[in-house]
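Hypothesis: this fold can be encoded by more than one sequence.
Test: take the structure tokens below, design a sequence, compare later.
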């Protein structure tokens, strides 16, 4: 018997000779072996394999499975790996589109024929521990995309689908003494690919571990652990069911609780249990010692058990009797090698989540490696475990093309039910013992139907965890499919309105705050609602890390590639760049907002008091050290420890242990909660929560006006000059503005600080979100106004006036918008060379809001050191500044443009009181704003940034571009395909707007 590749187009062919799904426990020869973490019953087949790559099934090498086939000419390739990252085929990123769409006319369940690559893998192995009497040998392919057929020593073994759960096969009957040949054939697309249409890079191959498992004659095939916790949490019962192969016995015990008793079910009661939660992920050690009939130990099975209670109680999702809020994130199992993620890389991701105060993860949109759940158990994360199901491309036919419900896939199609139930079983049976998993998810964006309903009913029959499915919102025929109301990207106001009349189920956002590019604005509205409305229990940010792959441009410069960069089509461009961290796990600036919004304390500083609201479920505030600091312009004046003892869910008012000085000035009071002890994810002293208050102590007496010598005015034919002891300024009538500003006069006239005439700036390089809702088309008038504002000419232009404060020079500009607008730009120059700039804009009636209102000022590229007193340390925008703090910060202008996948507006700072841009000697410019401004200091203009598809395409650095501004449009991010920035974070329209700031040279 062998396998015919034409069968891969049958959706009902789910598996052949594949072993049944079982728990992911490991077994060892003894407790001593278990302590080493290496099992003599396991043998890795990771490493070098021979590979033959065929563009279609018709081109597969005949007899590829035979032992006598010469594979010496085949390529050596590593496993695990995606073949597309080994030089075969190409990576392809699509969001919704099927990767074959438009190339071949195929119907659901069918597969492309002209182009459907097949990877044939071969390798030999010799057992490290030959089988003893009664033992069996299996091979498990932990991840094979999209389907795998297996042969051993020329004999067909079996076939399995589902790219993201193990396909395990018994090899015993085909095994020979000594060297064995194993062959695996992996097709890129099978029938199941129609329901693997997730928003990700499309790959194929053996991308997770391949492992041989030796099973003793008496062996634990499956373990099921259930914990029941009393209502008052005073007692817990642990129940264990074991499926034993062979004749023997099992002795079970939990360290600290004693042995388990029973026949069909092993039971132990634990008094005053230490309950597992994301805050205290305590795990009990359960051991199963298996003996054969002679009493010989055949295997030792360790299982870590989290004792906890999770479910819908009193209409709310509760952990150990307390309402939980998911401060969550979606995570694709994706890194720099695609979906080939090591345990170490996975653990690093989880540590990073904990440091960002994330407490929950949705495995979007497929099961992860087993060690992901093991690590979540250990570190403490609530997991929504999602089945491998998405048919978004088919759903589009219903949503946008007017097709009926009968088009839905899997919908009501009975031929798809076997594969759905198989995928559900494979996930649940493998993952069921992980305390971190709190909900099962039926999949993602596949509309609805009876098949998905049956999947949800399967989950309920097998387990007590709630069931999640968002598609019910779009197909409400079977609301019982989901135990929670689940939505994606619903605005916070819409959620609140819905819950005013729908009180029957808890509400979660399985996806929200689409973090594509420069995004994550106004997310505080969601978090605030979660703590105000009991039924809204939080959500999962989309998503954790950018899906992007390293590329090298023709000049040898590295960059991160996205859809279309690999010659792939169809593709969805940079829509994969949605992470709160970059692909290399560098934090994005918005991570400071995530960390702040998700922190376990809400703190309010008012006067000499601070209110501490403890949002934890099991952690008293005394578990963290509270440090209070007073500073002035970044200089710490006093720092004290405040002892707190606020119980979980409670609030308490404390007197601050510091005093704000009485001397006039602006001060900050920072309250910081920090780890007292080192944890698995951070060292002692790591800050887990903070808040800052700004206190202004006014002067009791108005300071006398600074008097300086009046500057000299030179009225030339084409220019107006203003000159002081240390500077010159030249205003051009021909060019309509300030053409020259020199500070620090020398024999050659002094250093020129301007590269061109400053221009009013109403435009920035559109963000990913702005592209998504069509802002560039709507805002086009402001682009034209920024590039082509025309100075009004005339004998009285510019207007020049000598005042007590200095020389005032005013220019008027006509804005070529429709209808036309106008603006006035005035410069008040005093005798010390300080220039106060006032920009007043009167937009044409009916124009859209400006992307920004400021000044574009080009200066010397040597001025690359930026220091500012304002919000920091990361970039901030008017709708994303809660996590920032007022202080004095430093940055390098050359790297200040945040490297989002596609260059866009980035790197700006809010609340800037003053800033300097200087060279290595400290010379440069100082900018000031009495009431705080926004400031961007970059090497490129908005127009240069907009023109680049990748950061390597930006031009060489030849200037420093300063853009002080009254305000830039908030970044938005409710979604990235239509949701606009909230109105309160946009500049007003149809009204006069004025912006003031000042600058002066530095020596």
């Amino acid at each position: 018997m062998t396998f015919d590749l034409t069968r891969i187009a049958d959706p009902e062919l789910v598996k052949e000779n594949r072993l049944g799904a079982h728990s992911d426990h490991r077994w060892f020869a003894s407790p001593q072996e278990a302590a080493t973490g290496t099992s003599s019953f396991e043998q890795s087949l990771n490493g070098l394999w021979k590979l033959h790559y065929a563009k279609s099934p018709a081109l597969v090498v005949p007899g590829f499975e035979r032992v006598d086939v010469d594979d010496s000419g085949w390529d050596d390739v590593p496993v695990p790996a995606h073949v597309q990252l080994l030089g075969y085929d190409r990576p392809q990123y699509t969001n919704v589109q099927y990767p074959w769409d438009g190339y071949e006319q195929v119907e659901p369940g069918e597969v492309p024929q002209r182009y459907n690559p097949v990877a044939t893998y071969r390798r030999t192995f010799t057992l490290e521990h030959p089988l003893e009497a009664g033992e069996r040998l299996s091979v498990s392919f932990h991840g094979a995309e999209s389907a795998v057929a297996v042969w051993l020593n020329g004999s067909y073994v079996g076939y399995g689908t589902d790219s993201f759960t193990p396909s395990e096969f018994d090899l015993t009957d085909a095994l020979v003494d000594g060297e064995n040949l194993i062959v695996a054939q992996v097709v890129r697309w099978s029938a199941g690919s129609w329901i693997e249409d997730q928003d990700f890079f499309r790959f194929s191959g053996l991308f997770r571990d391949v492992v041989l498992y030796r099973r003793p004659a008496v062996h634990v095939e499956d373990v099921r652990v259930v914990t029941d916790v009393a209502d008052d949490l005073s007692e817990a019962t642990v129940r264990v069911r074991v499926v034993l192969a062979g004749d023997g016995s099992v002795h079970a015990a939990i360290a600290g609780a004693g042995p388990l008793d029973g026949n069909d079910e092993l039971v132990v009661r634990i008094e005053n249990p230490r309950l597992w939660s994301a805050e205290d992920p305590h795990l009990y050690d359960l051991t199963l010692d298996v003996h054969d009939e002679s009493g010989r130990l055949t295997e030792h099975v360790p299982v870590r058990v989290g004792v906890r209670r999770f479910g819908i109680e009193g209409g709310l999702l509760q952990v150990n009797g307390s309402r939980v809020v998911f401060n969550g994130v979606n995570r694709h199992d994706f890194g720099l090698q695609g979906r080939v993620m090591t345990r170490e890389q996975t653990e690093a991701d989880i540590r990073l989540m904990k440091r960002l105060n994330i407490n929950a993860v949705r495995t979007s949109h497929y099961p992860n490696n087993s060690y992901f759940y093991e690590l979540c158990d250990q570190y403490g994360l609530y997991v929504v475990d999602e089945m491998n199901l998405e048919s978004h491309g088919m759903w589009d036919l219903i949503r946008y093309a007017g097709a009926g419900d009968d088009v839905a896939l899997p919908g009501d199609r009975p031929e798809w039910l076997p594969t759905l139930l198989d995928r559900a079983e494979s996930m649940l049976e493998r993952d069921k013992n992980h305390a971190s998993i709190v909900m099962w998810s039926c999949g993602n964006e596949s509309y609805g139907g009876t098949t998905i309903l049956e999947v949800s009913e399967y989950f309920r029959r097998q387990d007590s965890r709630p069931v999640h499915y968002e598609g019910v919102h779009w197909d409400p025929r079977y609301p019982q499919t989901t135990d929670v109301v689940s939505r994606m990207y619903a605005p916070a106001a819409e959620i609140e309105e819905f819950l005013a009349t729908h009180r029957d189920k808890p509400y979660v956002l399985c996806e929200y705050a689409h973090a594509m590019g420069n995004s994550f604005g106004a997310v505080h509205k969601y978090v605030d609602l979660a703590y105000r409305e009991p039924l809204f229990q939080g959500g999962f940010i989309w998503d954790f890390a950018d899906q992007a792959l390293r590329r090298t441009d023709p000049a040898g410069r590295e960059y991160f590639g996205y859809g279309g960069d690999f010659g792939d089509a169809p593709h969805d461009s940079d829509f994969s760049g949605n992470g709160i961290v970059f692909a290399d796990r560098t934090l994005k600036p918005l991570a400071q907002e995530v960390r702040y919004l998700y922190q376990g304390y809400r703190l309010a500083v008012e006067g000499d008091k601070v209110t501490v609201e403890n949002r934890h479920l099991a952690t008293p505030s005394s578990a963290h050290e509270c440090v209070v600091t007073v500073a002035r312009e970044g200089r710490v004046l006093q720092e004290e420890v405040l002892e707190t003892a606020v119980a979980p869910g409670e609030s308490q008012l404390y007197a601050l242990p510091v005093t704000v000085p009485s001397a006039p000035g602006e001060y900050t009071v920072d309250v910081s909660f920090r780890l007292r002890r080192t944890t698995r994810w951070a060292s002692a002293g790591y800050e887990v929560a903070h808040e800052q208050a700004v206190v202004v102590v006014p002067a009791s007496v108005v300071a006398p006006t600074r008097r300086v010598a009046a500057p000299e005015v030179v009225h030339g034919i084409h220019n107006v000059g203003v000159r002081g002891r240390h500077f010159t300024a030249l205003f051009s009538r021909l060019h309509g503005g300030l053409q020259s500003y020199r500070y620090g006069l020398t024999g050659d006239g002094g250093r020129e600080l301007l590269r061109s005439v400053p221009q009013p700036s109403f435009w920035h390089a559109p963000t990913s979100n702005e592209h998504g809702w069509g802002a560039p088309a709507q805002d086009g008038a402001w682009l034209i106004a920024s590039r082509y504002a025309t100075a009004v000419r005339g004998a009285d232009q510019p207007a020049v006036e000598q005042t007590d404060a200095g020389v005032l020079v005013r220019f008027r500009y006509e804005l070529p918008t429709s209808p036309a607008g106008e603006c006035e730009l005035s410069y008040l120059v005093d005798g010390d060379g300080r220039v106060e700039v006032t920009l007043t804009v009167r937009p044409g009636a009916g124009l859209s809001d400006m992307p920004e209102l400021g000044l574009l000022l080009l200066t010397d590229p040597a001025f690359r050191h930026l220091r500012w007193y304002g919000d920091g340390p990361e970039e901030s925008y008017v709708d994303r500044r809660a996590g920032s703090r007022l202080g004095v910060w430093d940055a390098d202008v050359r790297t200040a443009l945040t490297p989002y996948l596609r260059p866009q507006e980035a790197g700006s700072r809010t609340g800037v009181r003053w800033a300097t841009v200087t060279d290595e000697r400290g010379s440069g410019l100082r900018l000031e704003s009495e009431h705080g401004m926004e400031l961007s200091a970059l090497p490129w203009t908005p127009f240069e940034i907009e023109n680049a598809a990748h950061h390597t395409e930006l031009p060489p650095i030849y200037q420093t571009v300063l853009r002080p501004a009254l305000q830039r449009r908030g970044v938005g991010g409710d979604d990235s395909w239509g949701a606009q920035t909230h109105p309160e974070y946009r500049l007003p329209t149809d009204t006069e707007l004025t912006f003031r700031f000042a600058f002066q040279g530095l020596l």
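Residues 63 and 69 are 7 Å apart (CA to CA). DSSP finds 13 helices and 59 strands in the chain.
Hypothesis status: open.
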